[in-house]
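In the design runs reported in the main text, the only information available to the sequence generator was the tokenized backbone. The following block is the verbatim input for one such run; it is reproduced so that readers can re-run the procedure and compare outputs position by position.
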């Protein structure tokens, strides 16, 4: 390896440990904040209200309208409510959707953020904000969207349903897998990618058998942090571009889309950069795309896009959008090759590499 790289760390304070989310009040005060605004999805409103109650006078209200792919109109409602309440701090309790809403509010205001992730999506440690408006997803990068504090409390993930745990874990693995061949990778991101993928592989295998295994849950969240950190530091490539296209323009569910596409995009790129993807072959056993497909199958993760609302007749347009303003990718591609890749993922075929 030629040692020639740029490394940019993050200022975020990362707190990891069982029970760590019980000390949110200390973190709010350490940020010199007094008026926290708690965010969640409608599905996690009870947990958010319980947190708001625990914060007592440090909390001015909660907003339980977070939803997938961060629609701009939801963000605007939340920004208006935060202003009415004179909030000085956001506490985002939930998965990537809730954390995305917090980042979108922070982007438009000067409000500080504390993120408490309850899935493995990894968004809390990336300066990336994806937003949807008018049927299209756009992505921006800004240090402004990075939470000041991230609290990883594995206890909060004990009840994450097994199916969601698997797809969310594969979403994290996708961040690390693309990090291995990112143009701007560096030795630290590659180390984190390998450790993150290995941790998640072991953890997901254990969680399928024992969903409330505390050690496995901690290991999965640790892996998610590492994989998210990789995504936060390097450029995305073909895999993320296709997933953003499918989620943003066809409303396919985020984690499932990543889980299904991953073996196909990695298999596609493995023919161009087999050496860079060797860690995947070693961790999962086999050629990279096939090994990821077999692993996904073994943990009961979905394999075919056709089961997630995407019609075969959508694939032409999906290939067109995904190739229109492409992210840099180690293997050149055109619309026809991406159309063929999408067809295989739509059917749920095992990739050939
Ligand atoms: P999600 O946040 O939409 O969560 C899915 C569902 O699971 C929701 O109903 C949620 O309330 C529920 N849930 C979350 N944690 C739970 C728990 N522990 N127990 C029970 N239910 C729980 O799903 P996600 O996959 O985490 O996030 C997807 C979103 O995150 C997408 O909008 C995606 O674009 C974004 N994302 C962004 C980045 C980034 O870097 N910007 C990275 C990854 C994902």
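Verbatim output:
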């Amino acid at each position: 390896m030629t040692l020639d790289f740029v490394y940019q760390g993050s200022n975020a304070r990362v707190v990891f440990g069982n029970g760590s989310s019980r000390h949110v009040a200390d973190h709010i005060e350490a940020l010199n904040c007094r008026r926290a605004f708690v965010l969640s999805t409608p599905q996690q409103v009870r947990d958010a209200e319980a947190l708001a109650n625990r914060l007592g006078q440090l909390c001015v209200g909660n907003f339980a309208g977070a939803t997938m792919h961060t629609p701009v109109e939801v963000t605007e409602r939340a920004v208006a409510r935060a202003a009415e309440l004179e909030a000085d701090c956001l506490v985002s309790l939930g998965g990537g959707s809730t954390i995305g809403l917090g980042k979108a509010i922070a982007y438009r205001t000067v409000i500080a953020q504390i993120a408490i992730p309850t899935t493995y999506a990894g968004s809390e440690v990336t300066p990336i904000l994806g937003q949807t408006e008018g049927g299209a997803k756009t992505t921006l990068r800004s240090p402004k969207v990075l939470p000041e504090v991230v609290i990883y409390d594995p206890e909060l993930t004990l009840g994450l349903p097994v199916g969601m745990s698997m797809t969310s874990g594969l979403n994290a693995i996708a961040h690390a897998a693309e990090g291995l061949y990112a143009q701007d990778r560096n030795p630290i991101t590659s180390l984190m990618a390998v450790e993150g993928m290995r941790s998640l592989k072991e953890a997901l295998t254990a969680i399928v058998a024992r969903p409330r295994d505390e050690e496995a849950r901690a290991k999965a969240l640790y892996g998610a942090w590492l994989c998210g950190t990789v995504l936060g530091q390097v450029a995305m490539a073909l895999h993320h571009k296709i997933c953003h296209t499918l989620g943003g323009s066809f409303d396919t569910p985020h984690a499932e889309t990543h889980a299904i596409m991953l073996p196909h995009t990695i298999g596609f790129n493995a023919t161009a950069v087999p050496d860079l993807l060797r860690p995947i072959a070693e961790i999962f056993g086999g050629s990279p795309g096939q090994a990821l497909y077999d692993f996904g199958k073994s943990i009961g993760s979905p394999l075919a896009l056709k089961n997630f609302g995407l019609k075969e007749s959508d694939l032409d347009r999906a290939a067109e959008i995904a190739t229109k303003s492409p992210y840099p990718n180690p293997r050149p591609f055109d619309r026809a090759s991406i159309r063929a890749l999408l067809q295989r993922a739509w059917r749920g075929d095992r990739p050939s590499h």
